[in-house]
Amino acid sequence: MRGRTFVALLLLILVVGAGYWLYRGREASPPPSTTPLGARATLTPPLGLPAVPVPPDNPPTAETIALGRRLYYDPILSVDDSVSCATCHHPGLGFTDGKPVAEGVQKKTGTRNAPTVINAAYHTTQFHDGRALSLEEQAGGPMQNPIEMAHTMQGVEEKLNADPSYREAFKKAFGAERITFGMVTKAIASFERTVIAGNSPFDRWHFGKDEKAVSESVKRGFEVFRDPKKGNCAACHSVGEQNALFTDNKFHNVGVGVKLDKYGNPEFTDAGRFDVTKSEADRGAFKTPSLRNIAQTAPYMHDGSLKTLKDVIDFYVGGGNSNPNLDKEIHTLVHLSGKEREDLLAFLESLTGEFPYEVGPPVRSATPAKAPQQTAAR
Ligand code: HEC
Ligand code: HEC
């Protein structure tokens, strides 16, 4: 009897000990570092744009940018290998999808228009309602959104870890044996920081002082755009001294997505910024979009409700849809003559810029794509 108790005790001690040891072991192996390894790449902005803001924990490197570019165009990130970031943000369509509202896996549709990724690197918040605070945070959204890529964090990690060529590329970029979701979003964000477009005809004229870069109509249109007594557009679509983002990075209600209920009271089809702040004044307010490359990204507004730039101008001429939260900078612009409206359109069309970097799908050929310039020191 005594012998059996002793053996049982010994076994118990062994089991508890082994359990504790295993548990400690798990605690002792922290997740791999997500800090990029290589030399920091210099991102040189084109004429008309400021320096690209970069978070301290994700300096761009040639390796993370190339990896992010590959991930961006790879449907591997969606649950059924059918949808990539480029499905909804396609380079041939100004990094949007040309549809009023986005279409994800199994043709499921959302309620919002896919905004362009061009120059998103400069936004201080991401999404129409600004609910993400960085490109890194934003990139995690669509992969896990049930109607976009419908995948999970673990699912994406498992699929990528099962691919030897991705394991190798992540090891080169982050020095880690195991791919984590944090590395995926960091690489994509670094690629997005190269999807910048400037040096448009407008930039070459306004900032580059080349009088021949644009027509006289564009020059007059710019005056309509920034004159508070004319278009008053620059009140929100800001133009700076040295550069122009054409957004104040703030949220305004311009009256899109307002319909009247059966009593004639305005009703919002999308609460917009309210969802983030829970402040009544933000109901129906959306982030001011940049107007760069705007001629390429129809249809317009958070719900894709306006088909052409002419429709947008007509919408503003009408003073937006009346509602209690309508921004005080929005007035009817019926005083704009037909010619002034045409000039304003010509100005908007002059904002189509060029990309300083290769941003299309990676070509698997012997000649490497033009990579951002390397600097020796971090
Ligand atoms: C099914 C279509 C779809 C897919 C796939 C998709 N997006 Fe989007 N994207 C959208 C829509 C729609 C929004 C706006 C959603 C909102 O505001 O609620 C958006 C917003 C964004 C924004 C914010 C831009 C801004 O101006 O605020 C960025 C950046 C972005 N997506 C990048 C990506 C990346 C990177 C991927 C791949 C990981 C991706 N998207 C996959 C449809 C898509
Ligand atoms: C009170 C601030 C404000 C003023 C003034 C303003 N806008 Fe906007 N603009 C916005 C906001 C906010 C949106 C996004 C609304 C939405 O998605 O529902 C927007 C959207 C747009 C869009 C569509 C962009 C896209 O990617 O879908 C265009 C084009 C535009 N504005 C041009 C103009 C022009 C031209 C004027 C002057 C006649 C002007 N805006 C005046 C805030 C403003």
Can you characterise this structure?
The chain has 378 residues and is mostly helical. The protein folds into two domains: 62-192, Cytochrome Bc1 Complex, Chain D, domain 2 (Orthogonal Bundle); 201-349, Cytochrome Bc1 Complex, Chain D, domain 2, CATH 1.10.760.10. The protein contains twelve helices and four strands. It has helices spanning 2-28, 62-72, 85-88, 135-144, 153-161, 164-174, 181-192, 201-206, 216-226, 274-277, 309-317, 338-349; strands at 251-252, 258-260, 266-268, 286-287. The chain is globular, with a radius of gyration of 25 Å. The mean pLDDT is 91. The chain binds heme C (2 copies).
Short structural summary:
With 378 residues, this protein is an all-alpha fold.
